[in-house]
């Protein structure tokens, strides 16, 4: 079975990241075709410091390896380094009804509580998620 999952590099990883996601990834890489990603394009949908983001990306990659993700058993990469994520998101965006995106619960909640950083990236976040999943013809998406 092919799986895909990722973590946003928005800050330091913590025990919740390990227990909620990475720990299960270690098991999944043993018996599946596993694709794990540092989803940095997802991270830029909310305010960020470019220097901190670059540091966080490197820190997450190091943490993946330190936790036991094995590049011989799984694929892991930085989302922005694979241009097809953006290309497929663009194509999907051309057929995604705006009304469907505006009804997304997370978008509505953030639009109410953080009006200062509502942007098209946040609105189309689910389209980018769909491209992440479809690009690898994923059968399962473990979330933590």
TrEMBL record:
InterPro entries: aa-tRNA-synth_I_CS, aa-tRNA-synth_Ic, Rossmann-like_a/b/a_fold, Trp-tRNA-ligase, Trp-tRNA_synthetase
GO biological process, one term: tryptophanyl-tRNA aminoacylation
Superkingdom to which the source organism belongs: Bacteria
A single GO cellular-component term on record: cytosol
Keyword Transmembrane attributed: no
GO MF entries: ATP binding; tryptophan-tRNA ligase activity
Record keywords, A-Z: Aminoacyl-tRNA synthetase, ATP-binding, Ligase, Nucleotide-binding, Protein biosynthesis
E.C. designation(s): 6.1.1.2
Family as reported in the entry's similarity comment: Belongs to the class-I aminoacyl-tRNA synthetase family.
Protein name as it appears in the record: Tryptophan--tRNA ligase
Source species of the chain: Candidatus Nealsonbacteria bacterium RIFCSPLOWO2_01_FULL_41_9
